[in-house]
Amino acid sequence: MALWPGMSERERRLLGRGLVLAAFISILVFVDVPLYRSGRDMEREAAAEQSRLKSIIAMGQEYLSVKDEVDEIRGKAFNGAGTSLSGIDAIVGKSGLKKKMASLKPTTNPVAEGIKAIKAEVAFEGISLSDLSRLIAAMESDGHPMAIERISIKATYEDPSAFHATLIVNTVERE
Predict the structure, then answer these.
(1) pLDDT tens for residues 45-70?
(2) Which of 72, 122, 153, 170 counts the highest number of beta carbons within 10 A?
(3) Mapped to the 3 state alphabet, what secondary structure does 13-36 carry?
């Protein structure tokens, strides 16, 4: 079948241009478009990975800041001499309320390696509100990290200016 020799010069040029155009369109459709799409997909994936990397870096920085805070708290918590309970006892003694302290009942729970949380119930009898206020301020400004969870105050029948008070104090110390 002699298709090419039987054509006129004009038909050959038209067919040649059509073949070149068909080859161009084929290359465009089967090579360039998929390459373009995969390039766009790679750009999207790279942007997603950059976003993920930024969040990982932010988490790392947050971890370091939290670690520094924990180290600072540990340093403050364990700088004082003795245990947290002796710290509470010392604060009560400095405040001049040792005679009014009725009881000190601690409970301990391990929190992390080498650290235990202490919840102490400190009861006072016949204490004035101003003495109680000074005691609370002294406890919270002590070297040990202490937080007063709850205060229960009950009036006494004998003296209207004296109260029975119970403080629930949370603190930490090394085991």
Answers:
(1) 999 999 999 999 999 999 999 998 88
(2) 122
(3) HHHHHHHHHHHHHHHHHHHHHHHH
